[in-house]
Amino acid sequence: MEKGELLKEVLKAIIYRAELFLIDEMHIEAKFDANYRFVDKIDLKKYTTMIGIGGAINLLFYVTYNDSLLDNLTRAFAYGDIPEAEFIELRDSAAGEIANTIIGHSLSDFPNRGKGVTITPPVTIEDAKSIVKTNGTGMITARLVTPYGNMEFNVIGLLKGEINA
């Protein structure tokens, strides 16, 4: 399998599971925009969560969302009323847990059924602007559209060789 194909196969698994998760578990309408795009630059929204994918494959996964979408996801994830004083802290935690849940559900749909794949704990970044492609790196992006804004999913990895020299 070519490296570019691997990036797309992993992202396809993530998008499939993310759409199911948003609709079935979060009860938020979501639709894949039907486009997988290889890009040179990824523009990030207000909140971005990153998870490293290692072991049998070595990739970075980013999901990025705006305020309104993350607020609604946080409320859906919490299953009930959230005191305003606790909301910010819960939102930061929910961003990571949502991304982690989606990746966890996706692993069985990865190439080789995810055997030998490990993931890092999620890290959420606030107010970052963009990620720029470097030589030998592939970046692929796809989008889920919701009533509260778009959720963009990105997979980044090497396209040439085992190490980027």
Furnish the topology, listing elements before pairings.
Layout: H1 3-25, E1 31-32, E2 37-38, E3 41-43, E4 47-55, E5 59-65, H2 67-78, H3 84-106, E6 117-119, E7 123-126, E8 130-132, E9 137-146, E10 149-158
Antiparallel strand pairs: 1-9, 2-9, 3-8, 4-5, 4-6, 4-7, 5-10, 9-10
Helix pairs in contact: 1-3, 2-3
Which descriptors apply to this entry?
35% helix; two-stranded antiparallel sheet; alpha+beta; 10 strands; 165 residues
What does this structure look like?
By secondary structure, this protein is an alpha+beta fold. Helices cover 35% and strands 32% of the residues. The chain has three helices and ten strands. Helix 1 crosses helix 3 and helix 2 (67-78) crosses helix 3 (84-106).
Question: Any idea what the shape is?
Answer: globular
Order of helices and strands: HEEEEEHHEEEEE
Helix run count: 3
CATH top level? Alpha Beta
The level of helicity is 25-40%
Alpha-beta content class:
alpha+beta
Oligomer: single chain
Tell me the radius of gyration.
Answer: 15 Å
Distance from N terminus to C terminus (CA atoms, Å) equals 22 Å
Q: In terms of per-residue confidence, which ranges show pLDDT below 50 for 5 or more consecutive residues?
A: none
Overall structural domain count: 1
- Tell me the strand percentage band: 25-35%
The CATH superfamily turns out to be CheC-like
CATH architecture: 3-Layer(aba) Sandwich
Number of separate strands: 10
Q: Tell me about the biggest sheet? A: 8 strands, antiparallel
Average of per-residue pLDDT values = 90
CATH topology title: Chemotaxis protein chec
